[in-house]
Amino acid sequence: MRLLALVMVAAIIGILLETTIVHFLPLGPIMPDLVVILCVYLALHEHSVAGALGAFLLGYFVDSFSGDALGLHAFAMSLIFVLVYLMARQLWMDNVFTNVAVVFGASLLKAISVAALIAVYVSADYPWRHLFSTAWIEAGIAALATPFVFSILDGGRRVGGLD
Amino acid sequence: MLEFLRRNQVLLSSGLFLSFSLLLLVLNRGGVHRFDPLGAVFLEILRPLQLVTTQTSGAVGGVWGRYVNLVGVEKENRELRDRLRGLEEEHQHDTEIELENQRLSRLLDFQFEAPSQVVTARVIGKDASGIFESFVLDRGERDGVRPGMAVVCADGVVGRIAQASPHGSRVLLLSDHNSGVDALVQRTRARGLVEGALSRSCSMKYIKRSDEIDVDDVVVTSGLDGIFPKGVLIGRVSAVTRKDFGLFQVAEVVPAVDFSKLEEVLVLTSPPRQVNEAIDAIARARATPTPEAPTPTPLVTPSPTPRPRTTPLARPTARP
Hints:
The complex is a heterodimer. By secondary structure, chain A is mainly alpha-helical. Chain A contains 6 helices and no strands. Chain B has helices at residues 2-7, 9-27, 39-70, 78-113, 272-287, and strands at residues 118-126, 134-137, 150-153, 156-164, 169-173, 180-185, 191-196, 202-208, 218-221, 233-241, 248-255, 264-268. In chain B, helix 3 (39-70) runs antiparallel to helix 4. Chain B has 5 helices and 12 strands. In chain B, the strands form 2 sheets. In chain B, strands 1-2-5-4-3-12 form a 6-stranded antiparallel beta barrel. Chain B has a 6-stranded antiparallel beta barrel with strand order 6-7-8-11-10-9. The chains are: A mainly alpha, B alpha+beta.
């Protein structure tokens, strides 16, 4: 539960960056996805109901600052959590390269699931071109930021006595 | 049974949260009344942080920009450079104040012209995803801001309030695909619905095929949607598509407001019907000027330092 609190604090910082400073950067329609890194971290380290709740809340948090369609990111984050959790039960995933690869895949999965939900529930004319042109870059940025974010969270766990 | 639940608690709870997410999506589909139990809490938590970050990053960005420009200056000019930097920072500060002053003056002028009770708000955050179009404002329910209220600026329509917490709110921009404003072509009075799209463009739909509409026509609000008052500028027509079949034609509309540069907005807190009635009353009074003509009550929020109002209820669209 304390890990959940740590991740939620990190999520506040992540959303704060995404809604303010990132918009000052000349990135055009690309929006670096920091919250998906936190979701993967939860799925790798918190195998409990609290972890699932955390993933849902992360998505809900993003939804609260994004458009008018509540539930899109909440669904995507819950989906990422459960899939990464299932993978982590079967595979050894405690090294940097695997973490980077998982975050890259998770970010792509998030983009695809959000696009699919928009197409089904929100608007049939979803610009799929946007998905294919930006999702790769967003996933790449998230993957590059993964070691840095994971090390900060590991540090937070050590300071908080969670290890 | 209990053993099964305990062993699969993560999968079961995840399934529950996935279902709940879809339920949220369905419940909030296209509705004005949003089922959002936690949104206001999140908005309230982040608002003070966004306020500080937006103000700080603006100031730091200016200083950083100047620093980068000065990196190549030679060593012997160090003293001059320092002096120049100091002066530039001072100048930058003055320019920022001057620009802010100009923007606020325009807003104030608009506020005096706009026949409505208004709340001035500052943009403190933008959308967290790259798909939708929304801004976070620093005014909320304590200031009279409620979901569904119209948001405008001196240039025209901005959007409508999607969510409000006690001290903050979120505005869904005109260019978001969930936005829709009942509109008129100013020249021909052809009616339609201006909608945003996921491709960040706006289009005016449901215009009767027989209606006349051309490129460069000005599009304004009709006031019939119950959200925006009549006659607020939306944008200009950039293209018209009329197929060989169908009842309607579609026009691409370029919004009058540059959303990327928006810093301050006005939230219209009085009901549009009241506003429209006031506009019509003024129009009638102006059409038949008699000594007995009734003077309509101004609906503008009283200012601490009131300025003389020469045109109390002039239409916002009268501005170029």
